[in-house]
Amino acid sequence: MRRDLYAVYSIWLREMLRFFRLKSRLFGSIASPFFFLAFLGIGFGNGASLPGIPEGIGYVSFLTPGIIGMTLLFSATFAGLSVLWDREFGFLKEIMVSPVSRIAIVLGRTAGGLTTGILQAVIIMLSGILLGMTVPSLGGFLLSLVFMILIATTFIGLGLAFASKMEDMSGFSLIMNFLIFPLFFLSGALFPLDRFPAAIKVLAYINPLTYGVDGLRYSLIGTSAFSPVTDFAILGVSCVAMLFLGAYLFETTEVN
Amino acid sequence: MKGIHDPAISMQGLTKKFGETIAVNQIDLEIEKGELFGLLGANGAGKTTIIKMLTTMLTPTAGEARVWGYNVAKERSEVRSSIGVVFQDPAIDSMLTGRENLDFHGRMYGMDAPLRRARIAEVLELVDLAEKADVRMQDYSGGMKRRLEIARGLMHHPHVLFLDEPTLGLDAQTRRYIWQYLRDINKELKVTIILTTHYMEEADFLCDRVAIMDNGKIVALDTPENLKDMIGSETITLETESGQEAMMKILQSFPWIKSINSNNGTIELQVDHAQSRIPKIMLEANRNSVVITSVGLRKPTLEDAFLKYTGRKLKDTAGDSNSMANMMFRRHG
Q1: How do the pLDDT tens digits run along chain B, 333 residues long?
Q2: Is A149 exposed, middle or buried, given 0-12, 13-18 or 19+ CB atoms closer than 10 A?
Q3: Residue B195 domain-assigned?
Q4: Which of A12, A24, A63, B233 has its C-alpha lying 20 to 30 A from B285's C-alpha?
Q5: Is the Cβ of B270 closer than 8 Å to some Cβ of chain A?
Q6: Cα B174 to chain center, whole Å?
Q7: Structural domains in chain B (count)
Q8: B137 touches A: beta carbon within 8 Å
Q9: A23 CB near a chain B CB, below 8 Å?
């Protein structure tokens, strides 16, 4: 037990050291959501009100929670998939041959991915405020952290599940282009879901990120398409399910 | 450990199949506590697969193996706590310093901070890396990385240390150093060591006992000395300038020559006590006016034993295609 707690901490600490040492990764991962936020926000203008966005809500206010969701989606999936890097560079063997329970390994990785993901998300939130998003209340900010944790954990689980079943990194761009980007575009992060035709809306409704972005909007700008309880319940279920799936597949993985 | 007299490692009918391919075929083997044991074989002979099963990285297809008394398939956690492993390819985080890699390892084995600090200092001393402890491992040489991995493998006081090709790809001098470290660890710290190698000198120099592997089976098992003795005679090589036929005739008159082979002016003789026979050969050659231009004497090596048992020569291939691909990837990565 004590060993497992040490292990969770050890794996988390390693993620932190790597994250802050790899400056290019730090800036690289924050750059693309920042550009989305800045260019879309400036391009559409904060004053302009897009059809479907409630009266009195500026586009930057509407967009920022969506881009926070994007940041978490990408960083969390990467964190889960980073098992692949460890496999490629051999370090996974060092982890797997240790007498630590596999659950502790998964929890350590999740803790690491959560920390780095939420850190980036908060940076994006501050950027949004600088670009004109209305400043959220303290309660709203704290509630948004809960949604951030649920979003990040869901997609860490997803990344872990894929990484456990993939032999090498050749499938990586496939996952990026055919899973992560569609999840992003189908989440209502950039514009209201009402603008989708019904068939595509169905896809949005089975996308956990949709409820994450909606929950973030409720927390930060006080408007949402679903009730926050619905958002929380659906996202909570997907979070637990994905984490178990990731942990289960990771446990059955063999290290060659 | 369940009984004091149990072997450190035992395998009964240990088998691993990958699809149709049988990588390890019905191995029965016991390794005693305190032994420095070598698995010698060409690439693909099954050495690494055995190590992976013993270290719980792969599950046996059939048969049973115990490490320090624990079943490798059913008591994985206990096995993992009893062993240290140095893998064939580096298993370090090169973004971290040597000390951070060791610290990570110590925590994974449940060591608290004061214990880790003390142990890290000890094992770094053991492999002469104390000065490089706070350098990121991306700046380590291949030999330094391997030494740090050996230090790491020892950090949690394992009963058994596994090393898969510990000197693969290292230069001759570094290889000598590593041999020395391994010997010290085995003799002074009483750690049981199992290593795989395809270097004959390595097995010969280091190991108390050697198992020669071929096609997933053990084809010979003994001390390096006994394996060489079984080959028997020493080989004398003579090169003659002229009169090779006369020379052959002379040699055939010596009863102590076990066999003769001649080829393009080179004659190979199998004899015992070769050093005391050479003067006699030279004397007789001189009397019959045969000009010998060169004399060579070769004692049997482990290579000869290997050749005899497997029917093939061990080529110094620097790794299989798989690890080559990894290395290429790494260079770009």
Answers
A1: 556 678 999 999 999 999 999 999 999 999 999 999 999 998 889 999 999 999 999 999 999 999 999 999 999 999 999 999 999 999 999 999 999 999 999 999 999 999 999 999 999 998 899 999 999 999 999 999 999 999 999 999 999 999 999 998 888 888 998 899 899 999 998 999 999 999 989 999 999 999 999 999 999 999 999 998 887 778 888 888 877 888 888 888 888 888 888 877 788 888 888 888 889 888 888 888 888 888 988 888 888 888 888 876 655 443 443 434 334 443 333
A2: middle
A3: yes
A4: B233
A5: no
A6: 15
A7: 2
A8: no
A9: no
Q: Which chain A residues contact residue B92 at CB under 8 A? A: 90-91, 94
Query: Which residues from B are below 8 Å from A254, CB to CB?
Result: 57-59
What's this model's pTM, rounded to 2 decimal places?
0.84
Residues 6+ apart with CB under 8 A from A156: A76, A77, A79, A80, A109, A110, A113, A114, A117, A242, A243, A246
B91 to chain A nearest CA, in Å? 4
| CB pair distance less than 8 Å for B100 and A93 | no
With beta carbons under 8 A apart, name residues in chain A contacting B58: 254, 256
Let me know if residue B46 belongs to a domain: yes
Domain of B108, in residue numbers: 9-228
> Residue B251 domain-assigned?
yes
User: How far is residue B87's CA from residue B51's CA, in Å, rounded to a whole number?
Assistant: 9
Shared-domain flag, residues B271 and B131: no
- ipTM here: 0.88
The verdict on A180 touching B (C-beta cutoff 8 Å) is: no
- CB pairs below 8 Å between A and B: how many? 82
**Which of A91, A95, A172 should one mutate to test binding to chain B, selecting the residue with the greatest count of B CBs within 10 A?**
A91
Nearest by CB to A90, which of B59, B87, B111?
B87
H-type alpha helices, chain B:
47-54, 76-82, 98-108, 113-126, 142-155, 172-188, 200-206, 224-231, 244-252, 274-287, 302-310, 321-332
If asked whether residues B21 and B150 sit together in one domain, one would say: yes
> How close is the nearest chain B Cα to the Cα of A252, in Å?
11
> Which chain A residue lies closest to B76 (C-alpha atoms)?
A99
CA distance A196 to A66: 16
